[in-house]
């Protein structure tokens, strides 16, 4: 498998490029609108054909490049049926998405948002904003639910082999990847913490909403077609 | 080999952690002073012992963590003899630095600076600021020389197998790695460009000096002991 990690510094978002080296079919996971030209240039230079865009969830902190990529390449946009109406293929837990000879397994991991998916391919787990490195996604909007997030991580992710690579949707400290074993042992919100302790911690956090929430969520429900923010009420 | 890529967003600097999974001996390549605590925490959480700090060159854009890491762990600081006087082990082209059962091969790749090294370990090439992704290091200070940089890259790096992974000291576009084959084909400064064309391009660039040049270079010659900048002349 050809694999690349890409970063959008403005929003600290990771995008991932996966490809079957034999068939040259490629997928992008969580592309960022402002980076579409960079990503397409890389796909072209590597001699690949973009056939899939996989979205882990409807993002609140950046606008997806999925819709523009679909227009430019004909790629199929894949995501949960619980999220954006604009997607082409709505998947559920246990589905397998084929990328040439590769298999991408879909895991439903709600809790950050109700539509959050993780994707597993060749020992690499793409966790979106469910499991982050030594952290987790927040749970205070978009139908987030800390108890559900705890169950998703402990039930569906921490049951994978310890050596599984963890590739998150964001990192703010300069880490690129982790492993399931590492997060089980060292994630301060989860290691040795009960479900109740996790819920209490998440509910007590006092953090401002994402700066672009009002723009990003409606835009991402349209696969990145930018929608004007609602007028502020007088 | 255990491998991790780490990023300092303030200076867009990549630091690399390599370790022998059997002996747990670890090396950091180009650590950043402000990230020492992050890096030591990761080393500890992974059950590693830091024994080496490898510096690709005397940096002008950030201050190295090498000296502080040496004080805290007893690690040996390895670099070119052409650069910082503070290093413990001065290496030359063709030297092999052992890290447990791993071998790190030293390549002298001057041109960005006169002390620039690249390190090759298990198919991964750490190029410092000699070869960047679709770019190269600048050559306009610290005895930089565009002809020498062209010769270093084409003579010592582009002669490695095409599939060799390229891990640079910086990236400003969100790319994490490349390969020798990719850079031979797609690096706009080098692909199909003559030595003279490269020299002309590099000499005609009009870019401001690094913001922290006056602080970083003297500090890095002391392995990161911060030295006050010289007083501005009246």
Structure description:
- Two copies of one chain form a homodimer.
- Chain A is α/β, with parallel strands linked by helices.
- The first copy, chain A, has one domain (about 1-205): Ribonuclease Z/Hydroxyacylglutathione hydrolase-like (Metallo-beta-lactamase, Chain A, 4-Layer Sandwich).
- Chain A is built from six helices and 14 strands.
- In chain A, the strands form three sheets. Chain A has a six-stranded mixed beta sheet with strand order 1-2-3-4-5-6, with helices on one face.
- The longest helix of chain A has 12 residues, at about 145-155.
- The N and C termini of chain A lie far apart (about 55 Å).
- The mean pLDDT of chain A is about 95.
- The interface of A and B includes residues 45 and 173 of A.
The number of helical runs of chain A is 6
Distance between the termini of chain A: 54 Å
Q: At the third CATH level, what is the topology name of chain A?
A: Metallo-beta-lactamase, Chain A
List the quaternary state of the chains.
homodimer
Amount of helix of chain A: 10-25%
Strands in their spatial order, largest beta sheet of chain A:
1-2-3-4-5-6
């Amino acid at each position: 498998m050809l694999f690349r990690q890409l970063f959008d510094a403005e929003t600290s978002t990771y995008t991932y490029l996966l490809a079957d080296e034999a068939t040259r079919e490629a997928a992008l996971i969580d592309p960022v609108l402002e980076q579409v030209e960079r990503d397409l240039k890389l796909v072209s230079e590597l001699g690949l054909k973009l056939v899939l865009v996989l979205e882990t969830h409807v993002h609140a902190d950046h606008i997806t490049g999925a819709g523009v990529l679909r227009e430019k390449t004909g790629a199929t946009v894949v995501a949960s049926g619980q999220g954006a109406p604009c997607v082409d293929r709505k998947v559920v837990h246990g589905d397998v998405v084929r990328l040439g000879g590769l298999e991408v397994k879909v895991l439903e991991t709600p809790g950050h948002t109700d539509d959050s998916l993780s994707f597993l391919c060749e020992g690499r787990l793409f966790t979106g904003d469910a499991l982050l490195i030594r952290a987790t996604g927040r749970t205070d909007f978009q139908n987030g639910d800390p108890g559900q997030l705890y169950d998703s991580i402990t039930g569906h992710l921490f049951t994978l082999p310890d050596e599984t690579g963890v590739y998150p949707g964001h990192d703010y400290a300069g880490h690129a990847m982790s492993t399931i074993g590492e997060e089980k042992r060292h994630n301060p919100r989860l290691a040795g913490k009960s479900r109740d302790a996790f819920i209490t911690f998440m509910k007590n956090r006092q953090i401002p909403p994402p700066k672009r929430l009002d723009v990003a969520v409606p835009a991402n429900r349209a696969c990145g077609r930018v929608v004007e923010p609602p007028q502020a009420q007088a």
